[in-house]
Write a structure and sequence with these properties.
Blueprint: E1 3-10, H1 27-35, H2 39-42, E2 44-53, H3 60-73, E3 79-83, H4 89-99, E4 100-101, E5 107-110, H5 123-136, E6 141-145, E7 148-151, E8 156-157, E9 166-167, E10 175-177, E11 181-183, E12 194-195, E13 203-207, H6 215-220, E14 226-231, H7 248-257, E15 261-265, H8 278-285, E16 289-290, H9 296-307, H10 312-320
Parallel strand pairs: 1-2, 1-3, 3-5, 5-6, 13-14, 14-15, 15-16
Antiparallel strand pairs: 4-12, 6-7, 7-10, 8-9, 10-11
The structure holds aspartic acid (ASP).
């Protein structure tokens, strides 16, 4: 029989009682055995309690720990499932996809909108599907939710309470788990399985909005090592001097300080094209990096990961190319 490692980090899936009380360590795995006995028919599932927290508490240092755990233990299993709260599941999926290079086995993240202990919980099916994907799905970091398998670094949480909580608007699904299960091939390995767990969290996410006072992001620049700008549409932001809200000085100052700026879009589908409008040209002229069709989460996590290993042009090249299928 095949072996699957199930690493629990917390989230709604394992919660019980009056929310947000978490189940106590130990009882989560007992609940899984009681509520989803079918899992043992699919594989020999070995449990590992990594944490039992709401995913808003999962910080970059914990991504690195989780990646290290998977790096060390994965070769002994046929695949791994990580149970995770849905709020920052996208960020953890991105981090694991950048940290674990050339995965030899599938790593599947899942969670639930309703605790496993409750009636009509989506946790049961999500767990069965995630274990199925860990056994038969592509060898990369994926997210399994509501009968669909997505590339991990392409997902966005799109719903707070419906069961189809995730989508990957800029990338086709990697699998469907309906009456029949079907999986795509996924990424191909380009070398040895390695761990690159370092991250530098000193980044800032700036969402552009009408009325934004440029003095605020300018004041932030001395405190950070990189910025992701979530711009309008194709990568737009105000550059008119008329009302004193041009962000051009921000881009110039970032360049002067050597702070890389990655531009991504507030739109969910398609991506940034900095050659299309005047502000895009301003961004390009000041050395800003196009985030293409990356999600905001992917851009933030990739910047943290890139800053820990690269500088200058090497960092730019790292951010501009697809490292783990996160951009087209
Ligand atoms: N707040 C929860 C978490 O992210 C939400 C969930 O799991 O769905 O841990």
């Amino acid at each position: 029989m095949k072996n699957v490692l199930l690493v629990h980090t917390g989230g709604t899936l394992g919660m019980a009682g009056r929310r947000p009380d978490a189940l106590k360590p130990g009882s989560f795995f007992r609940t899984v055995r009681e509520r989803v006995p079918e899992l043992t028919k699919l594989a020999r599932v070995e449990f590992h309690l990594f944490a039992n927290v709401d995913s808003c508490e999962l910080q970059p240092e914990l991504w690195a720990e989780l990646a290290t755990l998977l790096y060390e233990r994965l070769p002994r299993y046929d695949g791994a499932v990580v149970t995770h709260g849905t709020d920052t599941l996208a960020e953890t999926a991105c981090a694991l996809s950048f940290m674990l290079k050339n995965l030899p086995r599938p790593v599947v993240l899942t969670g639930a909108q309703r605790p496993l202990k409750e009636i009509r919980s989506d946790a049961r099916l999500n767990l069965i599907d995630a274990v199925t994907a860990a056994l038969h799905g592509p060898k990369e970091v994926t997210v399994c939710f509501d009968s669909h398998l997505f590339r991990g670094n392409r997902v966005r949480k799109v719903s707070v309470s419906e069961y189809d909580a995730f989508d990957s608007p800029n990338h086709p699904t990697l699998g469907v788990l309906g009456v029949d299960t079907r999986f795509e091939k996924g990424l191909s390995r380009r070398g040895r399985f390695t761990l690159e767990a370092e991250v530098d969290p000193r980044v800032f996410l700036l969402r552009v909005f009408p009325g934004l006072d440029p003095a605020i992001p300018l004041a932030i620049l001395p405190k950070v090592r990189g910025v992701v700008v979530e711009a309008y549409g194709a990568g737009n932001f105000p550059v008119s001097k008329a009302l004193g809200r041009s962000l051009e000085p921000f881009f110039h100052e970032a360049r002067r300080r050597g702070v890389p700026v990655v531009v991504v879009s507030q739109a969910q589908r398609n991506g940034v094209d900095l050659s299309l409008y005047e502000s895009g040209n301003v961004a390009r002229a000041s050395g800003a990096i196009s985030g293409g069709d990356m999600t905001v989460s992917a851009a933030v996590v990739k910047l943290m990961h890139g800053l820990a290993r690269h500088r200058g042009d090497a960092l730019r090249r790292y951010l501009e190319r697809s490292v783990a299928g996160e951009r087209g």
